[in-house]
Specification:
This protein starts with a strand and ends in a 19-residue tail after the last helix. The protein contains 18 helices and 16 strands. The chain binds nickel (II) ion (NI).
Length: about 550
Amino acid sequence: MKKIVIDPITRIEGHLRAEVEVDENNIVKEAYVSGSLFRGIEIILKNRDPRDAGLLSGRICGVCTNSHFRGAVSAVEDAYGLALPKNAEIIRDLIAMALFIQDHVVHFYHLHSLDFVDVTSALKADPKLTTKEAHNYSPNPFRNSPSHYETVIKKLQNFVNAGKLGPFSNGYWGHSDYKLTPEQNLIMISHYLEALKFQSNIGKAVAIFGGKTPHPQTIVVGGISSVADMLNPQRLNDYLFTIKEAKDFIDRAYLPDMKLVAAAYREEIKAGVGRANGNFMCAGGYAFEERQRLFCNGIIYNHEFDKIENFDEKKISEEIDRAWYQDNGEAEVPYYTDLNADGSLKTAKNEDKYSWIKAPRYNGQTMETGPLARVLISYKKDNPLIQSFVDEFLEDTNLELMDLSTTIGRNCARAIESSYICEYIFKLVSRLLQNVKYYNTDTWAKYDFETLPKKSKGRVFLEVPRGMLSHFVNIENQKIKNFSVIAPTTWNASPKNFDGKRGAYEEALIGLKIEDTSKPLEVIKVLHSFDPCLACAVHMIDTKGKELSSYKIKSL
Ligand code: NI
């Protein structure tokens, strides 16, 4: 057995370390994935006014700011039993949905695509052939002219002539795992650069209703504060225009690029590379008609797509056997064990603690959460908004649903989701217009803070770009007594627990063949496909009693 340690994994948010053990054929037999930076933001929330929980917990992460902002406010609203006016919910959804598509596009192009795209190969591309190649994946490809591609090559050549590749300097260029032709690489690099503009534009859309990004500020307990923006047709129009532009990029660049990658990496997909254990979880949510939800809730075990159970929050628990915490009788406190006597770092061993991430479990099982789980569950539950998007993608790529449970498939699910989210946004905006037209302009659940319960508990389960997020709050004397978070990456990057069950990241690495152990591109690619956010994943304060449903949080 040989051990490969990758620390840190780059092109992610936060600090992630991976150790894999490979046999003589370089096949991964065991994996240890660690969150290597302690956080502890929940401590800051203690003894604060519950109305400040949103703004404070938004600082958990520099990427998922709005997810935590909204999550914390919603948990406080749950504790107080406040019902949100419809318009406030729509405005919150408009902010969230813009962030979903921004997150997915930025993740694929800027954090992940260089695991598929060999930048140096793009320099050899023929611009005319590139325009033809793009037509294989879209009837109307994005910015598809020879002169545009020539400009992209020139930009790349300038980097090389300057003796460095700038943002592209850190790659395993020439690795045998890169499968795209020079022309395909050039298409992807062109879209990589265009996606930088996309990122900036979506920031403007978020700012219309959310205020300054990356830390939106317009969600308040009981409603929203961007009332003037909601009532201003010009602001609504600006938002819609940006989303229409975004949809154009998603449909003419992002989705076709995933079809291109799916074709080039077909063998890898069919071999099931990057598949975890087939347990998927989605809390559902985002209403669009009386009974319809953008995402259906559900649980799938072991890829049994036809046996979907309903999500039940009472089945969630959290373990710390293999995480750097210990129970001091009152609470779970940090307990770091990974330093040798000389101060050097230990490598993870069979029974040791090895991560700052705790191990959440559903019904005792490790689960995968995220766009893939949402797409699979919503599709199999006949969600009418999603059906055609999934069917069309599978038909165009000649893939089956099972093929999506792979490294490449996770990315395909993200692109499919981005496309149907745009449709959902248009539905939301027309609902908002209907409300305003009929003088339904409520944006706040009127309440008198002094009369709200002095002691209460609340929680929320919210689907956010990377998967299911839950926030728990315990209020006493109108102050936060305890606050707890389980983020999507906490689920996916979970360490093992007492029974040795691997988290989704670890499970997805087992069986992986690594061509060159000095350049473990394959490992990085699998991990990137989950869109890791480690700042979000590491949380200290927890529910000593393991049961996390709202009424059984013992230590909160
Ligand atoms: Ni995050």
